[in-house]
Specification:
Elements: H1 2-6, H2 10-19, E1 31-39, E2 43-51, E3 57-65, E4 70-78, E5 82-88, E6 95-104, E7 109-119, E8 128-132, E9 138-139
Parallel strand pairs: 1-7
Antiparallel strand pairs: 1-2, 2-5, 3-4, 3-6, 6-7, 7-8, 8-9
Length: 141
C-alpha cells in the first residue's frame, strides 16, 4: 500500500487495480475428478469419480465442441464422490471436451477435472477415444 501511495504514475496504479496482484496465488481445487467412458450403441456413458476423497455435493459439467465453442453446461448431484451421465450419439454435434467442477460448501472442499474426446477418421463410425487431461492416458471405448 505504501508503494501505491508513493507512486506518481496514475496509469500504473489504475492498471494494478484493474488486473490485481500478479504475485497472488490462485485458489485451485485441491482434488481431482477422473472420467471413465463406455461407448454404447446409441450413446456414451460417462462416469466421473473423485480421486482420494469422497463427498456429496454438486457438480457442473461444461461441454465444448471440437473447436472449443461451448455447447452446454449442466449441473447435477454428486453422491459419494461420483456421478454418471449419458450422452446420446448425435452425428451433427461433435463433442470435443468436457470439464467438471465439484464442490461441497459445508465441508469447504472442491475438485476439478476434464476429458478430451478424439474422433478417429477411419471406417464408418469409428469409435471415439477419450484422453484424461490430467494424465494424458487414453481410455478405450
Amino acid at each position: 500500500m505504501r508503494v501505491k501511495r508513493s507512486q506518481k504514475n496514475r496509469l500504473m496504479i489504475e492498471t494494478y487495480n484493474l488486473l490485481g496482484d500478479p504475485a497472488a496465488r490462485l485458489a485451485l481445487p485441491s482434488h481431482e475428478i477422473k472420467f471413465k467412458i463406455k461407448q454404447r450403441r446409441d450413446f456414451l456413458e460417462i462416469k466421473g469419480r473423485l480421486v482420494d476423497v469422497s463427498f456429496d455435493g454438486q457438480v457442473i459439467i461444461d461441454w465444448q465442441d471440437a473447436q472449443g465453442a461451448p455447447i452446454q453446461s449442466q449441473q447435477m448431484e454428486l453422491h459419494r464422490g461420483s456421478f454418471k451421465l449419458r450422452i446420446d450419439n448425435d452425428p451433427e454435434q461433435e463433442i470435443g471436451k468436457a470439464q467438471a467442477y465439484a464442490w461441497n460448501e459445508q465441508q469447504n472442499i472442491d475438485a476439478m477435472g476434464g476429458i478430451v474426446f478424439e474422433t478417429q477418421v477411419a471406417a464408418m463410425e469409428a469409435p471415439r477415444r477419450a484422453i484424461n487431461t490430467e494424465s494424458g492416458r487414453q481410455s478405450r471405448p
